[in-house]
Amino acid sequence: MFCSKCGTQIPNGAAFCAACGQSVVGPVPPAAGIPAAPLVAAPARPISAFAPSIYAGFWLRFVAYVIDSILSGIVFGALLLMGIAIVGFSSLKNLVQGSESPDEFFAPEVIAIILLIAGVFLIMHWIYFAWMESSSNQGTLGKMALGLIVTDLYGNRITFARASGRFFAKIITGLIPFFIGYILAGITEKKQALHDMIASCLVLRKT
Predict the structure, then answer these.
(1) HSE (side-chain half, CA atoms, 13 Å) at 127
(2) d(Cα 161, Cα 92) in Å, to the nearest integer?
């Protein structure tokens, strides 16, 4: 340190210049035995709410679902035809024609086939929706066509587990009479259907 008046070097800790008597102005050292207060990082800024126009409304989501239903129906139909080809169309025809009464038609073999088809359809839908919505695309093919993405409440990409929870929560949504669980997507503040609320998800429009 040097004196601001005469330029003489001043030893550390000196209060006055030995040459001219000028007082030394500098930072005040902390008192002995008292550690200096650590620097505290500023708290993270809260994520602001999305603009109302970025939430996907009921009709956009409905059209996206129709597109997904058509595509999945085509795939499922192709798989069903493949299954019939493997089992044999004649075998299925004989099974149906051999049933002379409704009780015989609902034989254990027929019920097992129906349950198998329903199970395959459910698993196919689950994998499709959960995998696509948790992928980097953040949406099914229908949502991608309309520029929609599925996120958590902070706009982040969701996990496969959360996407699976959202898919199976649609079962609860479907149990509400008059499609009220789905209609909520058109009247709630964040355009959330019931299954979105259960899984803490949002459906947003890409900006």
Answers:
(1) 7
(2) 38
Taking only the tens place, the pLDDT of each residue in 165-191 is: 999 999 999 999 999 999 999 999 999
Contact by Cβ (8 Å): 199, 166 = yes
151 forms beta bridges with: 157, 202
Does 137 score more than 90 pLDDT? yes
What is the 3-state secondary structure of 124-146? HHHHHHHHHHCCCCCCCHHHHHC
Among residues 199, 192, 194, 201, which one has the least CA distance to residue 178? 194
Take residue 62 and report the two structure tokens written for it: 């409905």
The band of 46, judged by pLDDT with boundaries at 50, 70 and 90, is very low
DSSP string, 77-124: HHHHHHHHHHH-HHHHHHHHHT--SHHHHT-HHHHHHHHHHHHHHHHH
- Helix 89-97 × helix 58-87 angle, to 10°: 90
Cα(14)–Cα(104) distance, integer angstroms:
108
pLDDT in tens, 62-111: 999 999 999 988 988 887 787 777 666 655 566 555 555 555 555 676 67
